[in-house]
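Hey, can you fold this one?
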Amino acid sequence: MTDVLGYARFGAQGGDWGAFVTSRLGFAHPERLLGIHLNLLAVGRDLTPSAPKPFWRRGEAENAVDTRMRRCRALLERAAIQS
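Sure. Predicted structure:
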């Protein structure tokens, strides 16, 4: 797409399914993406007002989700700083 249009960097916006695609673009091409705008945040939500469990009491799946979320946040922060 960027070769045809002649842009070295671009921004992306997505809602509903487009939010997943846009998030993936941000993950796959951080060096070319100026920023993303999402209308749907694809994260799990706990509706109970309890405090999070300490990491040593969590299961492997919960810790894996936390690790992915930290990586995603770091990527988005890096993209925001570079723009």
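Residues 56 and 63 are 9 Å apart (CA to CA). Let me know if you want another pass with a different chain boundary.
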